[in-house]
Amino acid sequence: MALLDVSDLSVVFQRRGEPPFTAVDGVSFSVEPGQTVGLVGESGCGKSVTSLAIMGLLPRRGAVVTGSVRFEGAELLSLSARQMRDRRGRDLGMVFQDPLSSLNPVIAIGLQVTEVLERHRGMPRRQAMVEAADLLDKVGIPDPRRRLDEYPHQLSGGMRQRALIAMALACRPRLLIADEPTTALDVTIQAQILALLAELVRDTGTALIMITHDLGVVAGLCDEVNVLYGGRVVERARRHELFRRPRHPYTHGLLASIPRLDAPRGERLVPIRGSVADNIPWDHGCAFAPRCPNALGTCVEVTPQMDEEDGRLLRCHNPVQENQEVPA
Amino acid sequence: MTSVSPATQKSAADTGVLVAVDDLKVHFPIRRGLILDRTVGYVYAVDGVDLDIRRGETYGLVGESGCGKSTLGRAMLRLVEPTGGRVVFDGVDLSATHGEALRRMRRRMQMVFQDPLSSLDPRQSVESILVEGLRAHGLDRGREATGRRLRELLSAVGLPSTALRKYPHEFSGGQRQRIGIARALTVDPDLVVADEPVSALDVSVQAQVINLLADLQQEFGLTYLVIAHDLAVVRHISDRVGVMYLGGIVEEAGSDELYVQPLHPYTRALLSAVPVPDPVLEDRRERILLTGDLPSPAAPPAGCRFHTRCPWRQPKRCDTERPRLREVAPGHRVACHWAEDIRDGRISPHEVRPELVEEESALVPDTALTGPASVTEVLGP
Ligand SMILES: Nc1ncnc2c1ncn2[C@@H]1O[C@H](COP(=O)(O)OP(=O)(O)OP(=O)(O)O)[C@@H](O)[C@H]1O
Ligand SMILES: Nc1ncnc2c1ncn2[C@@H]1O[C@H](COP(=O)(O)OP(=O)(O)OP(=O)(O)O)[C@@H](O)[C@H]1O
Ligand code: SF4
Ligand SMILES: [Mg+2]
Ligand SMILES: [Mg+2]
C-alpha cells in the first residue's frame, strides 16, 4: 500500500462576487515510503494549493476540496480539524518557502522545537531540550546549544530554514512536504539544504514531496516527477526517463527554454510562446493548446485524458516524438 | 522593421572600453541614536571594484544576495554616490561631472529593473511612460515623429502598437518587462544596465526576454551590464562574467572559460552548487558544499573575504592579506593568493568548520534592508 494516495483531488476557491476558480483540477499521485516525489510547474499551476489540501491547511470556508487523500489507507479529507492537527504533529511535516512566516518571531527557536517534542512525543521538558539541541545539530546548525535561546530574526535565512526542518523532523514524520524550501535562499545555501533533505530521506526513510519550479532541483533529487500545468498533472515519469525524453510539449518546452549552466555560451534558447494568461479552460480542450507548438485541431475541442505508456503518464493529443529535437 | 538607432550610426571602429571602473567604493553609513545621530559603522557594499566594460559586449555580474551587485550597477550610473574611486564613461570621468553635463551623460546609460510592475507607474499608460523619457531628454520631436518612434520601439520589443493605450497591470510579467526594456531604449542609450531582468519571470517566459535582449543588442549596438544571481542565465547571455563576493570581484573571465576552468574557490563552489536539469549529470557531479553563512558586509572578514568559508584556505596569508584581482591567464583575473596552485593541483580542498555568523541587528542599516533581518520587519508595523 502506498504511504500517501492522492486521487482526483480538486480545490475550487469561491469568493463572493467572483466566479468559482479551480486551482487544482483532479490531481492524482501516490508516494511510497522513502520515496521522493516532485511536483513541478510554473507560478500558479497549483503546487502549493495541492500541498495545503493534503495537509488540511486550506481555509475551511471559501475553498471546496473534493477527491481523496489517503494516508496508509485512511482518508484524511474527512478528518475533523482537530484530528488533522494531530496527524500533522505525528505523520506529516511541512517546510515552507518562507521560514519566517512559519516560525513564531517572539519565541526562542529552542522553545519552538521543544514544544513540538513535548506536545507530540510526550517528552518531559528536560529531555526535550536535549533532543532539540540534537535536532539542530543534525540539520547542521553550528553551536546548537546556544542557538536554542535565539529568536528567528537572529538566524540567517539558511539557518532559519534548517531550524524549520528541525521542527518538522521533531515529530518524526513519515511524510515531509517541502514547498519551495530553497527558493528564497542563495544557491550555495540551497545546495546545503538539498543535501540535508536527501540525507534525511536516505537515513530516516521519510518520504518527501518536493515542490519546486526548478527543474534542476528535481533532476538531482526526485525519484518520480509530476509536471503540473493549469492545475492538472500533464506528465508523470521517473526522473531519468522524464529528462531523457520529455514527451509532453510543455515539459519539452520548459527544458528547451532554460539556459543550462553547462551549455556553451550563446546557444539560442527556444522559449514557449505566450504566457499562462493565454490558457484555455480544461473542459474546452487542452489548457496549453494556445502555446503549444504541437497543437492540432482536436486540442482545442477535446480535453486530453491521462494515458499510460511505458510506465509514464501523459495528457496530450500529440506528444513530442522521438525524432523531434530535444534540447541538449 | 526600421530600426530606431542603427548600430551603424555608432562608429564602427569603436571597439575600446566604454566604461572603466577604477577602485570603486560604496560604503553606507549605519546610524544609531535618536538625538545624536551618530555613525556606528559602515556597510561595505562595494569595496574596491576594478572592471572594464567594452563597447558592444555583455558583461555579466553574478553573486549571492547582498554581495553588492545592484549597488555597483547603481554607482556606475551615479544613482548612488560612490564613497571612492572613479567611473569613466566613454572617456568622461563621471565623478567630476555635474548638472547638465551629467544629465546628458545619463541619457546614454539606462537601467532595466527586476520587477517591472514596481518600476512602472500604474497610473500611467504605456504611451505616457515611454514619452516621459523622451521629454526628459528633449527628444520629443512632435506628435507624428514621436508616435512613429514609439511604434517602432514597441515592435522592436515584440508588443503590438495597441499596447500604447494600455496600463501596466493589463500585461503579463513578461510583457511588462518588455515595456521596461522599451522605456530604457526610448532615449537611445549606449549602455543598458539590466538588474535581474528575468528573475521575476516564469521559466517559460524568461527565455523570451533573454532572446529579446540578445536581438536588441544586435539591432541597436548596445552594451550591456547584466546583473543576476542565476549563474546559468548570466553565463548564457554574457561575453565576460565577473563573480562578486562581499563587495569585491573575486574572479573575471570569458563566459566559457569561467565554466571550463574556474580558479577562485568561491566560483568553484558556486558552479558546483547550481542544479542542472539533467539527472545523469546531477548523479555524477561533485559538490563543493560550503559550510556556514555569508559574513555580514558590515563586518567583512580581514584578509581574503572568503577565508571563513574557503575549503582551500592556507594558514596566515589568507587571514591577513587581501588578495588583489590579478591576471592569471590572458583575460582571466582571479583574486586568490593560491590560484595557480589550485589550478595545478598543488593544494587540495580540506574541511571547513562553520563559523558562526550573527545577524547582529546593531550592524544592520536602518534603510534598504535586502532581507528580513530586523525585529521590526519580522513583527511588522
Ligand atoms: N486562498 C486562495 N483564494 C483564491 N485563490 C487562490 C488562493 N490560494 C491560491 N489561489 C490561486 O490558486 C492558483 C494556484 O495557486 P498555488 O499557490 O497553488 O500556485 P503555485 O503553483 O504554488 O505557484 P507558485 O510557484 O507561485 O508558488 C493560483 O492561481 C492562485 O492565485
Ligand atoms: N541605500 C542603502 N543603505 C544602506 N545599505 C544598503 C543600501 N543599499 C544596499 N545596502 C546594503 O548593501 C549591501 C549590498 O546590497 P546590494 O543591493 O547591492 O546587493 P545585491 O548583490 O544586489 O543583492 P541582491 O541579489 O539581494 O539584489 C547589502 O548588505 C545591503 O543591505
Ligand atoms: S494536447 Fe495538444 S495542445 Fe495540449 S500539449 Fe498536447 S499537443 Fe499540445
Ligand atoms: Mg507555491
Ligand atoms: Mg540586487
TrEMBL record, chain A:
MF term (GO), any: ATP hydrolysis activity
Subcellular location: Cell membrane
GO cellular component: plasma membrane
Annotated membrane topology: Peripheral membrane protein
Pfam families the record matches: ABC_tran, oligo_HPY
PROSITE patterns: ABC_TRANSPORTER_1, ABC_TRANSPORTER_2
UniProt keyword annotations, A-Z: ATP-binding, Cell membrane, Membrane, Nucleotide-binding, Transport
Residues annotated as domain ABC transporter: 4-255
Alphabetical list of SUPFAM superfamilies matching this protein: P-loop containing nucleoside triphosphate hydrolases (SSF52540)
SMART domains referenced in this protein's UniProt entry, alphabetically: AAA
Biological processes per GO annotation: peptide transport
Taxonomy, superkingdom: Bacteria
Family matches, as InterPro entries: AAA+_ATPase (IPR003593), ABC_Ni/Peptide_Import (IPR050388), ABC_transporter-like_ATP-bd (IPR003439), ABC_transporter-like_CS (IPR017871), Oligopep_ABC_C (IPR013563), P-loop_NTPase (IPR027417)
Family label: Belongs to the ABC transporter superfamily.
This protein's name: Peptide/nickel transport system ATP-binding protein
TrEMBL record, chain B:
PROSITE patterns: ABC_TRANSPORTER_1, ABC_TRANSPORTER_2
Signal peptide region: none
SUPFAM superfamilies: P-loop containing nucleoside triphosphate hydrolases
Keyword annotations: ATP-binding, Nucleotide-binding, Transport
GO molecular function, one term: ATP binding
NCBIfam families given in the database record: oligo_HPY
The name this protein goes by in its record: Peptide/nickel transport system ATP-binding protein
Native organism taxonomy: Bacteria, Bacillati, Actinomycetota, Actinomycetes, Pseudonocardiales
